[in-house]
Amino acid sequence: MSFYSVDQTKCKKCLICAEVCPNKLILKDKETGIPKIRIGGEASCLQCGHCVAVCPVDCVKLEPMPSENFTPINKPLAISTEQADQFLRTRRSIRAFKSKPVDHETLQEIVALTNYAPSASHKQPVQWIMVESPELVRELAEMTIEWMTDLRKNNRELAKKYSVAGLIAGWKKGQDLILRGAPHLAISYTEKGNTWNNTDSAIALSYLELAAHSRGVGACFAGFFTYCANAYMPLRERLGLQENHICCGGHMLGYAKFSYPRIPMRKKLSVNWL
């Protein structure tokens, strides 16, 4: 099978595949009118799958992406605008969790959906560490406090910036203000050198949070932990992060202890229409 092929018995010569190709690698054969890939186009293909996914008669094949891996869209599952609006507006940052753990299957479903988050040039650079054990989450929170304690001794300016004194005091009183007693933690990381690392990861983390929300699982960004995961070698070693890895964000996961019957207001949106 060639890298890009078209079933000529089915092709309607609509050239939609050529129009949606991000890098314009598909062109019309002058003799047959059938779309074909440019010479050497394989090297520039993003493997986004748009050419295969968009074909109305399912006649396009891309060698690295078997057709059976393309899922037909179930149109009856489409949600209304009102449903989508309420779903997005009812997402809350959860900081009070039930002790009940989320089952492994659900966690797996949540992180799997992040694979569909858009990324620059379709590079999909985001990798994950899923901390399933509540005991390990607690250990990671404690290691973050250890890092903060070290900051107070050796870098007072940074310690003041992160307000570590109150966080350490809270921990000593039994208050986990780092990971909030969450039973699980999702950690996104990428390799250094990608210009869009943080953006790609932020989008993937948003997908993670919305996927969790759709399953009744609460989530919240773990900012202090993320700082620590990029600065404290004992924590990096505990997570298995290599020297060329950047921790882009941690997200606490678990069932919310309380429900929210109302949607809070937001400050007025600033938009400059041109």
TrEMBL record:
InterPro entries: 4Fe4S_Fe-S-bd (IPR017896), 4Fe4S_Fe_S_CS (IPR017900), Nitroreductase (IPR029479), Nitroreductase-like (IPR000415). The keyword Metal-binding applies. CDD domains: nitroreductase_FeS-like (cd02143). One of its GO terms (molecular function) is metal ion binding. This is Nitroreductase. Belongs to the nitroreductase family. Residues 2-31, 35-65 form the 4Fe-4S ferredoxin-type domain. PROSITE patterns: 4FE4S_FER_1 (PS00198), 4FE4S_FER_2 (PS51379). Pfam families: Fer4_7, Nitroreductase. It comes from Halodesulfovibrio marinisediminis DSM 17456. PANTHER family: NAD(P)H NITROREDUCTASE YDGI-RELATED, NADH DEHYDROGENASE_NAD(P)H NITROREDUCTASE XCC3605-RELATED.
